[in-house]
Amino acid sequence: MTKKIGFLSFGHWQPAPGSQVRTAADALNQSIELAVAAEEIGVDGAYVRVHHFARQLGSPFPLLAAMGARTSRIEIGTGVIDMRYANPLAFAEDAGAADLIAGGRLQLGISRGSPEQVIDGWRYFGYQPAEGESDADMARRHTEVALDVLTGRQFAEPNPRPMFPNPPGLLRIEPYSEGLRERIWWGAGSDATARWAAQKGMNLMSSTLKDDESGEPFHVQQRKQIDAFREEWAQHDHGFEPRVSVSRSIFAITSDLDRRYFLGSGDRADQFGYIDNTRSVFGRSYADEPDALVEQLREDEAIAAADTLLLTVPNTLGVDYNAHVLDSILTHVAPGLGWR
User: Fold this and answer.
1) Which of 103, 189, 16, 138 is nearest to 26 (CA)?
2) Three-state SS letters, 167-206
3) What's the pTM value of the predicted model, to 2 decimals?
4) Would the pLDDT of 265 be above 80?
């Protein structure tokens, strides 16, 4: 299967020895520059992770708009926005504006979020679950509202004496970007949430971490999650074909610098443990010579099943080195697997 290949950056910054990303300004500006460089070498997607209360990228839409303004072809996205923190109508406004600036290239991954830096951080943003809701329920409620208004549905009663003339009828969220509703992805951590994403007409984004539901290797469980998503999707008429992405840490060793950074660093086995009292499995990473990588990646059932692969990048090593990391995969690994 031909695959779209993108990068996923956590956007870390830290004033530490060896870091080329020492401030928030460095993280933001270098994310833009990496998107430009990735487009030039033929990468298909530039995605950023979103975390609050952390020295990482936290407010995605100004960054996405800037990336969109500096590029012309590459997909621009998130992996993922925590909807516990999101006002769904403001989310729809900001997303519409950024998508129009990018010419319809946004691919927005959203989810209920992951363990955060502070306890119940969404409360500081002014949100709390309704009576009987969990924080995950609140995220799904915010998501359903956002999905509804992203369709362009007109729902707001106009002022009979507005400051500016209104079009006839009820009003919708503006700016509206046609097609964006079909480019929303749900970051699913379990088979059940993958099915829920299919029911709601969202694409599937699956990372390197999921609930351990069978004790099988991570890539097998993730492939079964993809199967469950597609089976559920087939039961609904959403009017478009869904996409599926998986994330991996993959480093092709092609230089002495690569050897110094990554040779021997690949986790040869999955890791099992508990996160937030949930039995979880964290998938292995890959770091090896290109020919060895090709053979190892042939065995990854989830990568084979997905149409999009997001490569996590060590952003603190700087734009030039990360562009090299991406180019090495495209040049030395992807052709051997039939991805290019």
Assistant:
1) 16
2) CCCCECCCCCCCCHHHHEEEECCCHHHHHHHHHCCCEEEE
3) 0.95
4) no
